[in-house]
């Protein structure tokens, strides 16, 4: 089953498979399926074409995938352009929402493998 150019995994339940589309999480996928009158727990291969078309029609009305990514990128660019605090954090590639950086945020800062250690390198016991 393909929706908006995304192939949904056939072996997962439909409410989980819909989350493969960027911008659709579990609650929204359940809401979409309730709106389309599709029972939860079905697999994508078991859905009829009429149900598939109903799901597709509902999803096409939402802002997902490329449109949503473009909006998020433009929002971040706007924050950088007006030089807000959040924009500066984005441009410095640091955590934006107030997290501490002394011990965490290794992945955000890019040094995943480097750890701090204890500072006792080269000290001999006598």
What does this structure look like?
The protein is mainly alpha-helical and 126 residues long. The protein has two domains: 2-60, Helicase, Ruva Protein, domain 3, CATH 1.10.8; 66-97, no CATH class. The chain is 42% helix and 3% strand. The chain has helices at 14-17, 26-35, 49-60, 66-81, 85-91, 106-109, and strands at 2-3, 6-7. Strands 1-2 form a two-stranded antiparallel sheet. A hairpin with a 2-residue loop joins strand 1 (2-3) and strand 2 (6-7). Helix 4 packs across helix 5. It is elongated, with a radius of gyration of 22 Å. The mean pLDDT is 88.
How far apart are the first and last residues' alpha carbons, in Å? Answer: 69 Å
Number of domains: 2
Helix percentage range:
40-55%
Order of helices and strands: EEHHHHHH
CATH architectural category of the largest domain: Orthogonal Bundle
Largest β-sheet summary: 2 strands, antiparallel
Poorly predicted spans: none
- The radius of gyration computed from the alpha-carbon positions, rounded to a whole number of angstroms, is 22 Å
The counted number of beta strands is: 2
Structural class: mainly alpha
Q: How much β-strand is present in the residues?
A: under 5%
Task: Please write the CATH class name of the largest domain.
Answer: Mainly Alpha
- Describe the oligomeric state of these chains in a short phrase: single chain
CATH topology of the largest domain: Helicase, Ruva Protein, domain 3
How large is the count of helical segments? 6
Mean pLDDT: 88
Strand order of the largest sheet: 1-2
